[in-house]
Specification:
- Strand 36 and strand 37 form a beta hairpin.
- It is elongated and about 165 Å long.
- The protein folds into five domains: about 100 residues, no CATH class; about 170 residues, von Willebrand factor, type A domain (Rossmann fold), CATH 3.40.50.410; about 120 residues, Immunoglobulin-like (Sandwich); about 260 residues, Rossmann fold; about 110 residues, Immunoglobulin-like, CATH 2.60.40.
- Helices cover about 20% and strands about 30% of the residues.
- The strands form nine sheets. An eight-stranded mixed sheet has the order 17-16-18-19-27-26-25-22. A five-stranded parallel sheet has the order 4-3-5-6-38, with helices on both faces. Strands 8-15-14-10-11 form a five-stranded mixed sheet, with no helix packed on it.
- The chain is α/β, with parallel strands linked by helices and about 800 residues long.
Amino acid sequence: MRFTYFWPGWAIALGIGIAVGLTVFVYFRVARPMRPRYRVLLVVLRSCAASILLVCLLAPVVIEKKDITPPTHLSILVDTSRSMELVDEPTDEVPKSRLRQVNQLLFDVPRGFLQALQARFEVHLYPFDTGLHQSVPLAQGLDVEMPQFEPEGALTDISSAIQEAAATWKGQQAAGIVLLTDGGHNSGKFPLATITGLEMPVYAVGVGAVEPPKDVQIQHIDYAPIAYTGHENTIRVNVTQTGYTGKTTRLSLREASGNTLVAAETLTFGHDLQTATKPETEEVGTGTTTKQIVELKLTPQTEGNFQYTVTLPALDGELTEANNQKTFSVKVVKAKLNVFYLEGRPRWDYTFLKRVLARDPDVKATYAILSRGRSRRKATDAAIERLDGYYPQSTPASETLRFPETSAELSKYDVLILGDLGDTHLTEAQQLAIVDFVEVQGKPVIFFPSRNMLGVNGLRNTELAHLLPIDIPANGCRVHDAEFTVQLTQSGLFHPMLQMGDSGGTLENNTAIWQNIPVSLSRFFSGFQLRGGATVLMENGEGVPVLVLQRAGLGKSLLIAAEGLWNWDFGVKTFKDNRYRTLYSRFWAQVIRWMATHTDDEKLYLTTDAATYTIGDVAKVTAYLYSETYQRQTDATVQIEVVPPDGTPFQLRIHSATENANGSAPQQRITSDIGNLYTAQFELLQKGTYRIRAVSRSRGLTLGEDQIDIYAHPQLAELEAPQLNEVLLKELAEQTGGAYFTVADAASLPDNIAKVQNPVFVDAERELWSHPLVLFAVVGLLGTEWFLRKRIGLV
């Protein structure tokens, strides 16, 4: 005991002495006679009461040790991913799914598993799949029924669940984590070292069979996303099977829209086929898994976007048929583009471009080189004169092709490339045929000039002048023989011709490729004026246009106002960065293919970052809007509508570059990043085909429309390795200081968890002066004194 208000001992004794002395003095001064024993008793009663009150004024307290040891926490993590709904070979008469076994272990009262843990620990129950979910409240009584867990997650991330659970109870006493799972971690590499560093014991309970179940799955499809009409394309299908070695089945390729059979192949699992590679065999437990590549042939006949489905029939005893099919998308375009390349003189750009066109399997190119203008040639017996001024391009030389003289002859070509021609290289009939080719037939022309074409005696005074996207000055364009690197303009950054990144790559990736080109061009031209409606896609470092696009009648016109593009091929061969090895060929392939694409006046282009997705993915849609002259549109609105497989459309609408609009559907978001670029995102929640439509309008008029189809298939990662991953769970338990149990012997787990509990005591003060007994004692003493005084007659 101690006093809150501390006085020295002598002061306390003095106080008590004074109280007693005053009491004695008062009672011995009383004149009324009384017996001595009453006098002494009255003195004692009052002295005791006064002493108690005096002591209470000092606030006496008693110091006690109080146990405030916190409870020991135990987290139970339950895997609720799709693989937990699998039913393994039954160990008893009634087959049960993996998650049902877990539910029975936790909530079956006679087993008492959960109750045994609750008796020793503060238990917290968490479901998890791709991450840790909110804890499930536990019932306090045995008669309260607990809700059963359901398999919902498309992926399993065991490491994230453990780390989140450990972080929740960090700094508090925790006995560890009980992990109920099949070990099917499929969200990246498992970070065992990170989990071990948490210093949190993991007690793993493996659910499921170690042996892989019988199953057949289409694991992967290798295909070219672009196909050509009339050309045979090879579709390579990776097929994996377990438990069906020697079984024969049929692999089918069908068009998704009409379920029309396109191709089929019979295969025998585990055997080599003429159409399949030698099977790869992998031992898993006592089971055997084989992987085969089966080739199917696809020969599309019409242009357009198509979706195809590869399917395998369900086999007896198969785990699931959900992984027996895959859908992919193919864009079918015209097989070979007929390209005529007419050059005005031999030069390096001609040599390298001719080589690229000859190697391109999608291009059938015709080449011709004219000597100087016919009106300036002298009559001789030279071979070049016998060929009407054309350089020999074939053997025998007499078969060298000439440039067509009429529109009918020129119409069989899809793209026309005009090199460094002057005003006398082409006859007036040929010039008019080119004008008709572009403006009336709606086909493209690519001007690839040098000094002649853009000089004083170039195309300025010919019928072709108005096809150029520039006006050539009277004294010709200025020539600059200086090395420079190209820079994309705002329009060029997003133009389909100039996308050099991977499929679905980001804008930053494409920008970085162009900014870091390791070689320079050797010549550019200046002094010209852009025509109205011309769009600059590429410049030199000083802002001089290098690549200019323009609509010409019904066709398109492209000017490359620079020389030395061949260095993009020759100059990059010594660099280690493989991205630039194909820059030159890819640039020309994309330019020719895009220029040859027939488009009307509606210039809205719609793309997605992929053609196929899995359910739960977020699809990114990009709309790029041009005017009819290929200028950026900034005063327009764009409306994007998505029709999911169930047929219930939802829409998003956006205005100009600086505005953001939110759609009515909660899983969608749309933004406009810059000018005529619009992006939308939405989550894919259904299996099947999504049709995405975009419409642009300005002042009540429709500027353009476009649509694209994408496909969402179920997430099948949970079925790729469905067997119990006992190796991972055992290693996890061993490295973290826990233990591994099968679901059959999990009843012994509660007794094997070490109770980590450090007692915590604090000093607690209990006040004595405010205790009711003090009041009773004082009242009792003073009351007794009063009663005696009244009896004696002192009151």
